[in-house]
Amino acid sequence: MVNSNSTKPQKTALLLAQRIVRDIEQQGLGPGEKLPPERLMMDSYDAGRGTLRESLRFLELQGVLSFKPGPGGGPVIQKPTAENLATTLALVLQFDSARYRVVAEARSAFEPLMARLAAERITPEGLAGLEQTLVDMEAGLHDTEAYLDSNRRFHQGIAWASDNSLFGFLVEAMAGSMDVTRSTEQPQRRRQVVLRAHHRIYEAIAGSRPDEASEAMGEHVQEYLVYAQRKHPETLDRPITWQGAP
């Protein structure tokens, strides 16, 4: 069945926004550089003031632009972040009535592949950063915020070490408003289990053993899903909201 939305003509402002992004790329412009004044852009794109402002506002919401106030100000290019992705993803999932369970299930599917790729591609700098998360987690086992922070950085480190930016952005997005671990109580015994799992994953990645890294990560994320289902099923069954994790 064809989605009727896909047959709708695109709005003029959206088409203009796409042209602006294409020109930014073709001209080699980067974060911190300014776009031309409004009058010049209107002439260059043969666009009305209202359409241009709507396009720029759309790019601002997508994290492509910010606006510098005052004389000499105007639209300034910036690089979109995982936070922009998280906002869009959370809204889409909220309006689909999705539950936090879908996040945990999705991570259990793609994080083993992330670990496999990291074992093949990680840099010395990435490995050092990953090792530091283990040190920080062990030191912060009795500090909930420190423990959660090191846990988040461990998974993000592996995502980026996979040398696949989609994994990196997805894990960073899920570590924000869709991070259910922040609302599930994890006693000391549970934290020790997680630390041991992280050590096993790290050792496989450090030893360039992709199969072992994938298996260890698969067991780790699946074990969390089982734990959360047993101890905190109500959290997994709560609807995802733009406002943040339950």
Core attributes:
single chain, 2 strands, 65% helix, mainly alpha, 11 helices, 246 residues, 3% strand
Structure description:
With 246 residues, the chain is mainly alpha-helical. It contains eleven helices and two strands. A two-stranded antiparallel sheet has the order 1-2. It is elongated.
Give a quick rundown of the structure:
The protein has helices at 12-26, 38-45, 49-61, 82-95, 101-121, 124-139, 144-161, 165-174, 188-206, 210-231, 233-236; strands at residues 65-68, 74-77. It is mainly alpha-helical and 246 residues long. The two termini are 35 Å apart.
Spell the H/E element sequence. HHHEEHHHHHHHH
Measured as a percent range, the helix fraction is 55-70%
What low-confidence regions span 5 or more consecutive residues with pLDDT below 50? none
Number of helices: 11
Globally, the shape reads elongated
Distance between the termini: 35 Å
Strands of the biggest beta sheet: in what spatial order? 1-2
Mean pLDDT: 91
Major sheet details: 2 strands, antiparallel
Radius of gyration: 22 Å
Structural class: mainly alpha
Number of strands: 2
Secondary structure layout plus pairing:
Elements (H helix, E strand, L loop, with lengths): L11 H15 L11 H8 L3 H13 L3 E4 L5 E4 L4 H14 L5 H21 L2 H16 L4 H18 L3 H10 L13 H19 L3 H22 L1 H4 L10
Antiparallel strand pairs: 1-2
